[in-house]
Design goal:
By secondary structure, this protein is mainly α. It has one domain. The chain is built from 20 helices and two strands. The protein has a two-stranded antiparallel sheet with strand order 1-2. Keywords: Membrane, Transmembrane, Transmembrane helix.
Amino acid sequence: MADGPNAAPGFSFRAAFPWMSIFRCFQVALDPRKLLVAAAGILVMSIGWWVLSALFYYKAPDRSAPEYSNGTISKEKEGQKKPGTDASYTEADFTDIGNKRFAADFEKWRVMADLAGPADEVDPATKRPIPVGRFRAAPWDEYRGPNPFLFATNALAGGATERADAFGRFISGSIPVLVEPLVKLLVPVAKMVSPGVGAQTRVYLFFLILWNVAVWAFFGGVITRLAAVSLSGRGPVTLKQAVQFVCTRYVNYVLSPMVPLAIIAVVIVGLFVYGTIALIPLVGDILLLGLLLPLVLLAGVIMAIFLVGLVGYPLMYPTLSVEGDSSDTFDALSRSVNYVYQSPWHYLWYWFVAVLYGAIVTFFVLFFTSLAVYVGKWAVGLPASTMAESRKPEYLFIYAPESFGWKELFLQGSPYEVTHSTAVSPAGRVVDVYSKKDPAEYDRNRAEFYWFNTFGAGLVGFWLGLAFLMMLGFSYSFFWTAATAVYFLMRKKVDEAEPDEVFLEDDEPQVPPAPPKPPEAPAVASGPVGGTPLTVITAPTVPPAPVVPPPPVVVSPPPVVSPPPPVVSPPPPAEAPKPDDKPIV
């Protein structure tokens, strides 16, 4: 007996393993609209960070500065005794105090230089150039691991040591690119609460956080809105509609991650005031830091709750993008924190799958893009290899992006070849540096450039930079798309809401497109019948419901009427003869 239309479906992997819906994120994240939005967000964020870094960065302290001199310190300590003794300060004490002040200020500068230092800065202690600051580097100059094409070739052609080194560099550089949006937010927060950070650096970090949230509240919101409608299967949404959706709710997008940070800031200010009062002898020792220490612990618990809850920051934007008018700032905050604390293992598992799968597809995108540019350059340079060696196109790639090893890939085997090495930032962070392999050969060939050579290289650098931003934008697009998928999964787990429940505005499609319009019923032929024209009757169309045509109108022919017999008129009567007429004989 055949199964009816309501028969139970077969086994579904996605029904048994809901987390497999994350595998849809690759196709959704490849949407050119999302790549363009992500690339624009990366560029805007980097420009703002560069401006802030230039404004807040300061030079390294000088040991010979007046604030570290014995004369200045002696005036400060004039009339004072050493703590715990009746002895006065000596010149040796003044020197020791100056050295300690300088060492403390120098360490604070190291932190600032690691974050915002320019590329041409020199470490006064080592007299060596320091790498550009973490938040001052352009997106195309940040180190993000080896080039995927070079990684693949080295892994295949090299020995065991080369493969291990290439794989380690890939893990340490490429995979963190997937969570870069989260890292870009959490690193300034972590640095702000770290010891040994100066007041100016903390203000700088605060503005970095504000700018980061302001930028990705818009661009991340647009990506999650596009992804939410796509993943729910509720129909297409245009980029204009997504932008309008986010613009009308932009304040909620901005405040969602800022509320927990503001709560943490209020608690810190309260503890600062509390600690200032605790400096009073006896009152601070016994009352504030003794009997009332549980208040300090409670404040620490509050900060820890929200700091850990920031791990759910990627869920805030999808909440607003999915729920629409039924959600606001506090709903986005509560959902992101509650989902993490109510089902932490599911949350971690979903992100583990997303990062692992994302690493694979990101490697594919990076490899494909790098290979496309490389083979294009190689093919167009074949004529120069045989006819004009000096016109090989490598010289046009001198402004290629350094990130992902693009400059290393495109300049290899040329006089402009660069080599990879490592350096240590002032704060002890190990970074990768690309330098000229043969500076003399590079300078000699570079001096032979005409203006059009430089201009052409600049144009190539522009297009490569655009392609690079689109390629890097995929990792951001995948991150926010995966965050939307994780939100659907967590909402299903905690709130038992179906993934197709997405808020749609009036100007957005509520249902999938209607089926094609059925053909119209044939019209009844018209024509003069019995001298009277007939009206053409067609079936009315009422979209979008299917139209059932009415039965055709049958026109009966008119009855046949026999013509009457012909009427024979009688002959006219003969005229009477006139008197003048003579009878005819």
